Amino acid sequence: MKKKVLSMLLASAMALSMVACGQSNGGAATTETPAATETPAATETQAETPAEPAGSSELTDGKFADTRSITVEIYDRGNDGGSDPENNMYTEYIKKGMLEEHNVEVTFKKVPRWTETEDINNLLAAQEAPDICVTYSYPTVLTYADMGGVIDLKDLVEEYKADTPNLWAWLEDTNMLWDKDPKTGSLWAIEGRRAEQQRIVTFVRQDWLDALNMKAPTTTQEFEDMLVAFRDNADTLLGKDASKMVPFSTSYDIGWRASNIITSFMDPQITDKEYYINGFDDRMVTEPQTKEAVKLLNKWYNDGLMWKDFALYGSGDTTEDDMIKAGYVGAFQHNWDYVFRNGEDSINANLKRNVGEDAKFVAVDCFKNSAGKYAKWLYSTAGDRKLFFPTTNDEPLASLLYLDFISKPETIKYLQAGDEGVTHEVLESGAIQIKAAEGDAIQNSGKNIDYTITCNGTYFGDWDLANLSIAYGYAEADPELVDAANKISLADGLAPINVNVGVIEAEAGVGDTLSSKRDQIYDNAVVAAPADFDSTWDSYMSDYLSSGGQAIMDERAAKWAEYFGDADMLP
Amino acid sequence: MSKPAQTQSKQKFGVYMKKYWQLYAMLFLPLLYLLIFKYVPMVYVQIAFKKYSLMGSIWTQPLAKNHGFEYFIKAFQNNDFRYALKNTLTLNLLDLIFGFPAPIIFALILNELCFVRYKKVVQTIAYMPHFLSWVIIYSLALQLLAPNAGLVNMVIQNLGGEAIPFLNDEAHWVGSYIGFGIWQNFGWGSIVYLAAIAGINPELYEAASVDGAGRFRKIWHITLPGIKPTIVVLLIMSLGNILGGGFDRPFAFQNNLVMRVADVIATFVYRVGIKGLQFSLTTAVGLFQSVVGVFFLLMANWISRKLGERGIW
Predict the structure, then answer these.
(1) pTM score over 0.80
(2) Which of A130, A248, B226, B265 could bridge A71 with an S-S bond, Cβ 3.0-4.6 Å?
(3) A254-265: pLDDT as tens digits
């Protein structure tokens, strides 16, 4: 009998818990189910629910009557000896400013930088995402928008335009409305602005060139000869560490880390249409000429000119950096300022300490395309961080005010430059020289971009000051080297185009699969035996195409035809 | 007649409970754990049959196309899933063939050692890798086996040989993967067998010695039959897991050069489901995996009972 009672009890407990689970979801469903199925309907309900009926009148002098609170995503880079991303000099500045100017309490919520997409996914799924989310991945935003998990900003940004003058002034229509759907008009994310458009350059060891009496390479052939010279003179250059010599280093992400080489093979007459169709990501793997570029890398690899272990280390791994800092690497391609980043822990500062006073990387330009130009892609003003509000955000105005606050010239200046004497000095010319900071004042990301989510790159709230200061933006770095790298990174630069033809359905949910497949094409082709190069490339490429790559290109082609007809170039 | 009988059994039960209630109280937590983490989630298996969205209740979400089987069809049309399925089977089978006998052999060898202190030391050292996470083991593997900077390959190269692509060639990678799997687990796995061996009646050995049996005879005719039930139960459990397997081991060991042999169902589900947000597709895959697992389990159990062993139920 008692047994029966017990089992009844257990059964009812189980049933109860199920009902409870069902109900907690069911409650949410009543308001949000339409969002999941029908987008246009969703936009209206969403725009209405969060905004108080009074609209912008709830602010007096830009301030809420009662204190509101919002949470903001912040990247955690896990730097050795960095500052606490949720609590440092810069977060204090923002918190204080927001409270004083808008009566909004800000809490930061950290998300690991190298797994940001996964982490944001989890937070969104758990309905615990920060009110202001930031990601580099637009497909992630779209997927959530599809499920009804993202607020449509279409009406909100217009409604509160008067309350957010700094935001509009800084991002302008271009970035504010960059992602606006041409048909439905919905706006799922705001694009942060790149203040710097420089992208990737090639670095070589100046002291090695000097030791071998060589000049900086100016053509692809000269670059290859230089790599051969590095390899053959490993004993001279590295002594007892000769076996550790790596003439040219790269990572698993060949499309990024050999970008200048790949771009130099690209047809200089590439049409906007072709660029767009192959432009699912910026690694250009489906461009017809990319295969030739990788063939060159394959030759280098098999000639012992490249790092053998490159494919074994994943994103965020520091093995390659450590190798570069220890002085074993002769050349590599990366972000234009890569060797200057991180002050005392920068690559050049490490080389100086570990190898010698002359040891340093300098930027060179040597990959000419068939038109004789050192073509390389620049960034567009957008395409950087995407800022979006999940539907769990019930303070859209306060969140927009946050974006407005961090887009103010003086905020950007403070976040980038910090306090005079602590994080920077003002030079005679008026330029801002960044210096190494300590403790709370340490910027975990270059130019503090993790906090200036609407701005990536030197701005200091003033273009003249920014241009004057760009060479002085790196503590411990030689301004001349920075200036040279800056100039090279812009030389013959190609500005990307923005083709806005709305959502490409085929792109939803396949981003990670395809970028992983893309890297597999590159990596396997580079390490293939020369005789197997073609078959390896083709086999991995067909895998990429059949896993969704082809569908994306077809849909892009169709959309292009729908909007621009037979034209090859944007109107 | 029923009433007195009932009161009697009631009384009996009361006495019984009074005596043993602590044991049941202790059982309560594990049961609760099973209920919350193993049974309640089963309700969400229906995600596999629905056009799932994170927002809103699953009870009200619409059925997927093809009578709810859209995602099963999609999965089997997906190249990556087919690779993952094949790889999961291959790697788990190899694990079974090479990994399953290892702890048995180790237990037998250990059992024959007569220096107790030495035996204890060996045993402890053999357990240790079990407590290392796969991420750590992979770092060790990289330090040892990377083509350029790995210790082993440095030695080989300094002796004038060619570096062996332990981790960056498909065939070699499978070998390394299985090898590290055995290394991590054989010590820990042997505990159960050692316990089973300890339970064998020593008189049997004495009798065998009197009859003139040597060491190998005794192993063959006494020790092995003595632990046969244990072996069978563990084998059945391993077979039930033939399509399962952990996530961290393949995930830690994967790299772009070996993905065609290294991508297994668990990592496929992570990449496509969690990262790519295709929850219905990957729930369908997970359900398929479990159903096949149950099938193998039942089959192994049935065979073992046919062969006159106990089985697991």
Answers:
(1) yes
(2) A130
(3) 999 999 999 999
DSSP run (H or E) holding A209 = helix A206-211
Decide if B275 touches A, using CB distance below 8 A. Answer: yes
| Contact indicator for A371, A268 with CB cutoff of 8 Å | yes
A125 and A215 in a single domain? The answer is no
Q: Residues 63-92, chain A: which have Cβ within 8 Å of B?
A: none
* A206 in the same domain as A187: no
Kindly identify which residue of chain B lies nearest to residue A148, measuring between CA atoms. Answer: B55
Contact at CB, A311 and B256, closer than 8 angstroms:
yes
Q: Which of residues 16-35 of B touch A (CB under 8 A)?
A: 17, 35
Q: What is the pLDDT of residues B32-54, one digit of tens each?
A: 999 999 999 899 899 999 888 77
Which residues between 199 and 258 in chain A have a beta carbon less than 8 angstroms from any beta carbon of chain B?
243-244, 246, 252
State how far residue A255 is from chain B, nearest Cα, in angstroms.
14
Task: Let me know the angle formed at the C-alpha of B225 by B220 and B226, rounded to the nearest 5 degrees.
Answer: 115
B80:A547 CB<8 A: yes
- Cα separation, A86 vs B105, in Å, equals 53
Complex ipTM: 0.82
Total of domains in chain B: 1
Q: Is there a single domain that holds both residue A150 and residue A215?
A: no
Domain around A337: 200-377
As a whole number of angstroms, the distance between CA A23 and CA A322 comes to 53
What percent of chain A is predicted at pLDDT more than 90?
A: 72
Per-residue pLDDT for A121 more than 60? yes
Quote the CA–CA distance of B54 and A149 in Å, as a whole number. Answer: 8
Range of the domain at B186: 48-306
What is the rounded average pLDDT for all residues in chain B?
Answer: 89
